[in-house]
Write a structure and sequence with these properties.
Elements lengths: L2 E2 L1 H8 L3 H9 L6 E3 L2 E5 H16 L1
Antiparallel strand pairs: 1-3, 2-3
Length: about 60
């Protein structure tokens, strides 16, 4: 399992950092907190992408 920073997820998804924080705030994307840092695991990212695919299929 890998854990990414907000900035890394923004690069992976080709979106802005603010958008990643919005997704976290609205609980569309899950994360873990390590100290003061937020990390998004590869499982969290895969689950988020799966919801996008599910919404496209609907």
């Amino acid at each position: 399992m890998e854990a990414y920073t907000v900035e890394e997820v923004a690069k992976i998804l080709h979106i802005g950092r603010d958008k990643v924080y919005y997704l976290l705030r609205t609980r569309q994307l899950r994360s873990i907190k390590i100290g003061k840092s937020r990390r998004i695991t590869s499982e969290h990212l895969a689950a988020f992408i799966a919801t996008l695919e599910d919404n496209d299929a609907a």
